[in-house]
Design goal:
286 residues, alpha+beta, four-stranded antiparallel sheet, two-stranded antiparallel sheet, disordered N terminus, centromere, mitosis, acetylation, ubl conjugation
């Protein structure tokens, strides 16, 4: 391109209106005088096409812009993208915070409130209690004024006047404490008597009776050879009207006694006595 510019300048032999720009192919400078344009048009035919093209476009655009311009533009776009991302994150955090606080878009979301929801009922109950307390305070103030004035208690304040005095309240507290102490002592005595009764039953009958679950009782003989040898009975009702023997490892070893005394004779006392004699005989023989 530089050689073409030099050739045009040399061939035309005049002050050329062309200028060469390293960033562009060729630039045209508008002639200042009409005779410059006329002189150019008188040149040989081989240059007329080029000159007319220059006159039509006035200036050629750059074919290869500098790479630094692209890098600068990329840096600007990257900075803008980073700024937009930070702004987007900030807006998302604000939106999440507002959502957690119960905020919502009224144009898109409609909240329905039940007429009998628990919150409304609680507020109404609180208002009623507050109103009752205020009325009670007013009645008490009126009663105080009447008592201070030495007058008779009006009919609407008789119920308020029937309230116990502090001395009466203290006396009632003492009575309650005394009753609780008496109840505690009765529990201790009752527990002691229960233990005594269990020991007596164990000594007289030879069986220790324990309640395992509701309506179920475990009997352990005083002559049991092993600690796990026991009999389980279950009552058909809480009154204990009818008892039923449950199967255990020990009951499987005394099948003959069960068949004789429970199935044939239908007698639990006879069965327990027979078991006692059986175990006692094992110990004496040993």
């Amino acid at each position: 391109m530089r050689e073409l510019f030099s050739l045009l300048t040399f061939t035309m032999g005049l002050s050329t209106p062309f200028t060469f720009n390293p960033m562009c192919m060729l630039s045209w400078t508008k002639p200042n005088q009409p005779h410059q344009l006329a002189a150019l048009l008188k040149e040989p035919e081989k240059w007329k096409g080029t000159i007319r093209t220059v006159l039509e476009h006035w200036e050629f655009q750059c074919i290869s812009p500098s790479p630094s311009l692209y890098r600068l533009k990329i840096e600007e776009l990257e900075a803008e993208r980073g700024r937009l991302e930070e702004e987007n994150k900030s807006l998302e955090m604000k939106l999440e915070k507002l959502t957690l606080q119960g905020d919502y878009d009224r144009s898109k979301t409609k909240v329905l409130h039940f007429s009998m929801n628990p919150a409304s009922l609680a507020k109404q109950q609180r208002k009623e209690e507050q109103h009752q307390l205020q009325e009670e305070c007013e009645r008490l103030r009126e009663l105080v004024r009447v008592l201070e004035g030495g007058g008779s208690i009006p009919g609407n304040l008789e119920m308020v006047g029937s309230l116990q005095s502090p001395q009466e309240v203290a006396e009632l507290k003492k009575q309650v404490e005394s009753a609780e102490l008496k109840n505690q002592r009765l529990k201790e005595v009752f527990q002691t008597k229960i233990q005594e009764f269990r020991k007596v039953c164990y000594t007289l009958t030879g069986y220790q009776i324990d309640i395992t679950t509701e309506n179920q009782y475990r009997l352990t003989s005083i002559y049991a050879e092993h600690q796990g040898d026991c009999l389980l009975f279950k009552a058909s009702s809480s009154s204990g009207g009818k008892m039923q023997l449950l199967e255990t490892e020990f009951s499987l070893t005394i099948r003959e006694l069960i068949d004789l005394h429970l199935l044939h004779q239908d007698s639990i006392p006879a069965f327990l006595s027979a078991v006692t004699l059986e175990l006692f005989s094992h110990q004496t023989c040993a």
